[in-house]
Design a protein that fits this description.
It is a single chain. With 702 residues, this protein is α+β, with helices and mostly antiparallel strands. 61% of the residues lie in helices and 8% in strands. A six-stranded antiparallel β-sheet has the order 1-2-3-4-6-5, covered by helices on one side. A three-stranded antiparallel β-sheet has the order 7-9-10. It has a two-stranded antiparallel ribbon with strand order 8-11. β1 and β2 form a beta hairpin. α8 runs antiparallel to α14, α25 runs antiparallel to α26 and α26 packs antiparallel against α27. The longest helix has 46 residues.
């Protein structure tokens, strides 16, 4: 140790190991390299306590620095430490509250523009944050000489590595502390701050209520992610590294050190986790501190060993045994704990390509929690065997119980073999009875279907046009209609919840409406049409795309519209015609090649045009033109059916008469001339279609 009368350092031959250690630590501290001093102390565990005491005595004596007695409203008690840009003192605040604080002050001679900017950044960074795992900032100001300072929470703790080794924390307890650090760093990131210098000496652990609590300190080289931290922009000068090489990410050590983001802290957390688990750094400190190019090459190109393999590279069995004991395990147990999950987690956090790292500290913490809970981690390959093993470890009691139940089940199966034949006989008898019941039900269903079919056929025959106008046939048709109505009413009573029953009933009502219309009973026809439409709407609620239901509904609207028009209810008729046209137009758009749908659509257009010819002549002209366009398009195609050729002159006749009534004499002449030309292709003396003859009469009249 130094002599107070003669401060000259004695030769190494005359110095004790303790004095040599203290001198080396003081030299490192004088150069601002606190990490090197900490590594020297950790590497000499036996001498470290005495060396720390001597260094503290020297600091109290004032021989190491010009210690101020008062800084602002704070009374300086003793130095705590010093970094590259400032000294930290334990100080006492007496007003407005009485407490001890850690007071950080720029060193004499270090108040350059860059240092002041970095100091302001740290002060602003800490002021932004409020988290149980980040040292709180209480106050900030400057001395009479203009040297800035700030007072923050005094953490009476040890570096995280010293704390874990000194108390022989096991692997799980070390991981819990790393999770706390991750939570603090995540909070800083959410405030837009990247620490950029996470290392053991910047993570102190103290005990609160008997439980270890990690605190992150020293945001001295923090970088703003989203905004400026002070009046000066925090930056890295070309060729000058800010940070600690052993814990530095590849991008932070690169030539463009400005290109760092939150994932650089994830890398440092990975190094910290690696060191806590193995007692070693991913890369030897001596190799990283040779020169800048060597540092960049190692971080960029070399892949660190997995933690479980790192332990196997130790040459001293005794050192490996002591390291495992400090983690409450044997060397074999420690390797087994690290192999797999923790290997994968560490290597993912240490990925050289930051796109492959954990995106946030929260993701790293989540994987660490998963491994503590024996759940599959995201960092490792999720094979089936791996997931199964994790499930068994996580639910060992449930799996054991399930295995016991399985054994009991197997025993029960063996015991029940004797009764199997009797059970099979009973099951066979039940199946045969069910089959007989099913056959009987199917036969009844077929009979019922046959009855429905018979009534449907009868209704179709009653509606045959050939029976219309025969006076003696009307009473018979009426009687058949009444009988059919009673049959469907009974059918609905029996199977009212059967969609088929409702569909049959709707079809029957539509047929009855048309028959009543032909018999001149308009009121009953209107009633039946509306009932049919209501039933069809009910069915379409559950099956809105079913074509057969939509076709029947459109037919019912056509019949209702014609009946209402014949009864002098023009406004209601127009509304029903419009509803029917809307339905037919949609059906035709879905099936443009279906001639049956086209026939109904064109007929509906013609009927609506006839109905509106007097009240809305312009609308009537539009409807006939639409009908003609559809018919002309179908006639131009191959194999046009005969009804298309017959309806074309009929539509032209209707359009021509409407044009004539609208005083469009020139248009009427052209349209009626085309109708006349089309009619010349038919032998009107032999044609049985009355509509064609009526069309011919209209043409010649006009």
């Amino acid at each position: 140790m130094t002599n107070t009368d003669d401060p000259t350092i004695e030769s190494s031959a005359k110095r004790s190991p303790l004095e040599a250690l203290v001198e080396a630590c003081l030299l490192a501290r004088a150069e601002g390299d606190l990490d090197a001093a900490e590594r020297l102390l950790r590497g000499n565990a036996a001498l470290a306590p005495a060396a720390r005491l001597q260094i503290q005595d020297l600091e109290r004596s004032g021989l190491l620095d010009d210690q101020p007695q008062q800084i602002g409203p704070y009374r300086v008690l003793e130095p705590i430490g010093r970094g590259g840009m400032g000294a930290v003192y334990l100080a006492e605040q007496r007003e407005p509250v009485r407490r001890k604080v850690a007071l950080k002050l720029v060193k004499l001679g270090m108040d350059t523009r860059e240092v002041l900017a970095r100091f302001a950044a740290e002060r602003q960074a800490l002021a932004l944050m409020n988290h149980p795992h980040i040292a709180k900032v209480y106050d900030a100001g400057s001395t009479a000489e203009g040297r800035p300072y700030f007072a923050m929470e005094h953490v009476a703790g040890l570096p995280i590595t010293d704390y874990c080794d000194g108390r022989s924390l096991d692997t799980a307890q070390r991981i819990e502390l790393v999770i706390q650090v991750c939570e603090g760093v995540q909070h800083a990131h959410q405030k837009g701050i990247v620490h950029r210098d996470l290392k053991p000496s910047n993570v102190l652990v103290a005990e609160h209520d008997g439980k270890p609590c990690a605190k992150i300190i020293d945001f001295g080289i923090a970088k703003a992610i989203d905004h400026r931290l002070g009046e000066e922009t925090v930056h890295t000068r070309h060729g000058v590294l800010l940070g600690t090489p052993e814990y530095m990410s590849p991008e932070q050590a690169g030539r463009n050190a400005l290109d760092v983001d939150a994932r650089t802290d994830v890398y440092s957390l990975g190094v910290l986790l690696y060191e806590l688990l193995t007692g070693e750094l991913p890369f030897e400190a001596g190799r990283l501190r040779t020169d800048l190019e060597g540092l960049q090459r190692i971080l960029r190109e070399e892949t660190p060993s997995a933690p479980s393999k790192k332990l196997g590279t130790r040459t001293s069995r005794e050192e490996t045994r002591e390291l495992a004991q400090r983690r409450r395990a044997t060397p074999e147990e420690l390797v087994r704990r690290l192999r797999g999950d923790l290997d994968w987690i560490c290597l993912k956090a240490l990925e050289k390509d930051r796109e492959r790292r954990y995106a946030t500290p929260n993701e790293l913490a989540a994987d660490l929690r998963r491994t503590l809970a024996n759940e599959p981690v995201l960092a490792g390959p999720p094979t089936r065997r791996y997931r199964l093993r994790k499930f068994v470890r996580r639910n060992r009691w449930q799996v054991a119980a399930a295995a016991a139940v399985m054994v009991a089940l197997i025993a029960g199966l063996v015991a029940s073999t004797y009764y199997r034949s009797r059970a099979e006989d009973a099951a066979r008898d039940a199946r045969e009875a069910l089959a007989r019941e099913t056959l009987a039900r199917a036969a009844a269903e077929r009979e019922f279907e046959s009855a429905l079919e018979a009534v449907d056929v009868l209704l179709k025959r009653v509606g045959d046009r050939r029976l219309m106008g025969i006076p003696r046939a009307e009473p018979v048709r009426r009687a058949i209609l009444e009988d059919a109505a009673k049959f469907y009413e009974r059918f609905l009573l029996q199977r009212g919840d059967d969609p088929r029953a409702l569909e049959k009933a709707a079809g029957a009502r539509g047929a009855r409406a048309r028959l009543f219309l032909s018999l001149g009973e308009d009121a009953r026809s209107i009633e039946e049409s509306r009932a049919a439409i209501a039933t069809l709407d009910q069915l379409l609620l559950s099956d809105p795309t079913r074509a057969s239901l939509r076709v029947e509904r459109a037919k019912s609207f056509d019949a209702l519209a014609q009946t209402l028009d014949g009864s002098g209810k023009g406004a209601e008729a127009r509304a029903c015609f419009a509803e029917g046209l809307l339905a037919w137009r949609a059906l035709h758009a879905e099936s443009p090649r279906d001639d049956t749908t086209l026939h109904y659509f064109v007929s509906a257009l013609n009927n609506s045009a006839v109905q509106q010819r007097g009240s809305e002549p312009q609308r009537s002209l539009e409807l006939w033109r639409e009908a003609l366009a559809l018919l002309d398009a179908r006639a131009a195609a191959e194999k046009a059916p005969r009804w298309v050729l017959k309806m074309r002159p009929m539509m032209r006749t209707g359009l021509g008469t409407a044009q004539y009534q609208a005083q469009d004499l020139e248009g009427a002449l052209v349209t009626l001339g085309a109708a006349r030309a089309a009619l010349e292709g038919f032998d009107l003396e032999t044609e049985k279609e009355v509509d064609l003859v009526e069309a011919a009469v209209d043409v010649f009249l006009y």
